[in-house]
Design goal:
The protein has 630 residues and is an alpha+beta fold. It folds into three domains: 191 residues, Heat Shock Protein 90 (2-Layer Sandwich), CATH 3.30.565.10; 157 residues, 2-Layer Sandwich (Ribosomal Protein S5, domain 2); 265 residues, MutL, C-terminal domain, dimerisation subdomain (formyl-coa transferase, domain 3), CATH 3.30.1540. Helices cover 31% and strands 21% of the residues. It has 20 helices and 23 strands. The strands form five sheets. The protein has an eight-stranded mixed beta sheet with strand order 5-4-3-6-2-1-7-8, with helices on one face. It has a five-stranded mixed beta sheet with strand order 9-10-13-11-12, with helices on both faces. It is elongated. About 18% of the residues have low confidence.
């Protein structure tokens, strides 16, 4: 057993380092604290310079009102601040930093130098601190504002230093932090220089859409929908992305409370619910949303880093945000933006939970070949897949994906939703019955070689009907084809066969997507993608896997780059899903038999690669129960 130790005060240096652990997590935390100090000082220009991911150097210089010489040493003393003076001030915080912890915390884990010239002073002064101890102070040269230099971050705390990521990753986090701050302060100009090269420069007094264009792809910025809604003292304003531009990750949802960038579940839930009925459950919209509200109705003192907040009236916050985003989505004249689902979402009450009903993609976001066919529409019909193939010239072999018919939404199939095209009432006297369904009873039985099973036909252009002795078997053709393609890929996964494209596909990349692409580069190449970087945030697709349609290549890559956690198996699974035949697609007998023959030889054939069942069986006893015969 350990012996009892005496209680005693901690040394000042250790206290500062413990405090630094709460405020200074990594170089981007330093940039955040220093830039927010600049904005609190009334700066209209903030220039940031970093080297080697911020490990060796971070410089933040502004043109704010500066700090008098006699207060410089106080600025690097814990719990010394100009932003609050009494207990009542905590109830209505109007600044970004107010505890007086940031500067002494940073100075305790680095070589810190701050030079500043106050507005009413003739000359500038400086203070220099190393590992929490003041080394020097006195006059200095600076035209205006404040300049803070942080060198050798965590050099005296090696345990913290080894947990930092690569320079590239740390640079991206700094870029993300500075970009988020800049969006809330359009009056100020910002610049970031990384290893001697200017990463971006934002002029002051920009419009929000123009500033977002520096960070988001053009196709997203072109379809941003502005909104501004106010109710009961809560004002939600900003821009929301068009549903057709949704992506597989939520890193383009920027949330602000009284100008402070935050991460809050209530606000995120409100944004997601505003898009209810327009996006799949795994899709995320883009949004840059500002919530202006009474300062005494929000607690920003929840965490030292101040990324989290607490609201007194969560329902009012939720309602204001949802109302604002719905306003943007319903203001457009196009059908997807003014859908009844959006209006219903606007009228629904706050429950504190996300809706659990399935979401369907907007009709305007799909290509014409993916849209559902409705009665009276002009989409062509085909009595069989052979007729479709004769029209479109598509291959029929099972090792190449069969084309998607106009009567099916692939997105619903991939999400596992039970979505079916509506049938023309003239096809059958019975609701839900089609000419294809009636053919099942007339079609000759086709035995499956070596299995003792007989293929009877296709129902709803989706399910393959089989008789297995005294049992009825239904096979989901999409799930079965997914399994067949995946097993074929696993056999030849490293072959890397590719189909060259006459005109390369161009894809703009978010910085986070560029990072994921770097991680997946070799895996994508082994699958058959021929890629070439055209600058830091653009990729050219010069070749695609032979099993993938050209129109699907961009959609597949966007989905693959949408999540950082994807391994090679997940990429193959997603490619199999994109390549497989869809529900609602007619198959000729020989095509169905070829598919079933391949599927019967697959391991784990009972389930699709996503885990959905691929086959259902009913014995005679099961069917008697269904008909209540016993």
């Amino acid at each position: 057993m350990t012996r009892r130790a005496n209680i005693r005060p901690l040394p000042q240096g250790l206290r500062n380092q413990i405090a630094a652990g709460e405020v200074v997590e990594r170089p981007s935390s330093v940039v955040k604290e220093l830039v927010e100090n600049s904005l609190d000082a009334g700066a209209t220009r903030v220039d940031v310079t970093v080297e080697q991911g911020g490990r060796t150097l971070i410089v933040v210089q502004d043109d704010g009102w500066g700090i008098p010489a006699e207060e410089l040493e106080l600025a690097v003393t814990r719990h010394a601040t100009s932003k609050i003076h009494e207990l009542g001030d905590l109830a209505a915080i109007g600044s970004f930093g107010f505890r007086g912890e940031a500067l002494p915390s940073i100075a305790s884990v680095s070589h810190f130098k701050m030079t500043s010239k106050a507005e009413d002073h003739d000359e500038a002064s400086h203070v220099e601190v190393r590992a929490g101890e003041v080394e020097s102070s006195g006059p200095a040269a600076l035209a205006a504002g404040t300049r803070v230099e942080v060198r050798g971050l965590f050099s005296n705390v090696p345990a913290r230093l080894k947990f930092l990521k690569t320079d590239t990753t740390e640079h991206k986090r700094i870029t993300d932090i500075l970009s988020r701050i800049s969006l809330a302060h359009l009056h100020a100009g910002f610049s970031l220089t990384v290893n001697g090269r200017e990463s971006f420069r934002l002029p002051p007094r920009q419009k929000l859409a123009d500033r977002l264009a520096a960070f988001w792809p053009p196709q997203v910025c072109e379809k941003l929908l502005p909104f501004d809604a106010e109710r009961d003292g809560y004002r939600a304003h900003g821009v929301a992305g068009h549903p057709s531009q949704a992506q597989g990750r939520g890193d383009r949802i920027f949330l602000y409370v009284n100008g402070r960038a935050v991460a809050d579940k209530v606000m995120l839930r409100a944004v997601r619910q505003a898009y209810a009925g327009m996006l799949l459950s795994r899709e995320f919209p883009q949004a840059c949303l500002f919530l202006d509200m009474p300062a005494d109705q929000v607690d920003v003192n929840v965490h030292p880093a101040k990324m989290e907040v607490r609201f007194i009236d969560e329902k009012a916050v939720f309602s204001a945000i949802r109302r604002g985003v719905v306003q943007a989505l319903t203001s457009q004249q196009s059908a997807p933006d003014a859908s009844p689902a959006t209006e219903a979402a606007a009228r629904s009450s706050y429950s504190g939970e996300m809706p659990d009903r399935p979401w369907s993609p907007p009709s305007g976001s799909a290509e014409p070949a993916k849209r559902s066919h409705t009665p009276g529409g002009d989409a062509p019909k085909f009595s069989s897949y052979r007729e479709y193939r004769a029209t479109y010239g598509a291959p029929s072999t099972m090792d190449v994906p069969l084309p998607v018919t106009p009567s099916r939404k692939p997105e619903a199939e991939e999400a596992g939703e039970d979505s079916r095209p509506e049938e023309d009432a003239s096809l059958s006297a019975h609701p839900g019955m089609t000419d294809r369904d009636s053919e099942v009873s007339r079609r000759a039985e086709r035995p499956l070689s070596g299995t003792g099973m007989e293929y009877l036909g296709q129902v709803a252009d989706t399910y393959l009907v089989i008789r297995e002795g005294g049992r009825l078997v239904l096979v989901d053709q999409h799930a079965a084809h997914e399994r067949v393609i995946l097993e074929a890929m696993r056999r030849d996964r490293t072959r890397g066969d590719s189909q060259p494209l006459g005109i390369p596909l161009e894809m703009a990349l978010h910085p986070a997507e560029a990072e994921v692409l770097e991680e997946l580069w070799d895996g994508l190449r082994s699958m058959g993608f021929l890629l070439e970087m055209d600058g830091p945030n653009r990729v050219l697709v010069k070749g695609i896997p032979p099993t993938l349609e050209t129109a699907k290549a961009r959609e597949y890559l966007s989905a693959a780059l949408g999540e950082r956690s994807r391994g090679l198996d997940e990429l193959w699974t997603m490619l199999a899903c994109k390549s497989a035949i869809k529900a609602g697609q007619p198959l000729a007998d020989d095509e169905a038999l070829a598919l079933l023959d391949e599927w019967m030889r697959c391991p784990e054939r009972e389930y699709c690669p996503h885990g959905r069942p691929a086959v259902l069986r009913w014995s005679a006893a099961d069917m008697e129960k269904l008909f209540k015969r016993k």
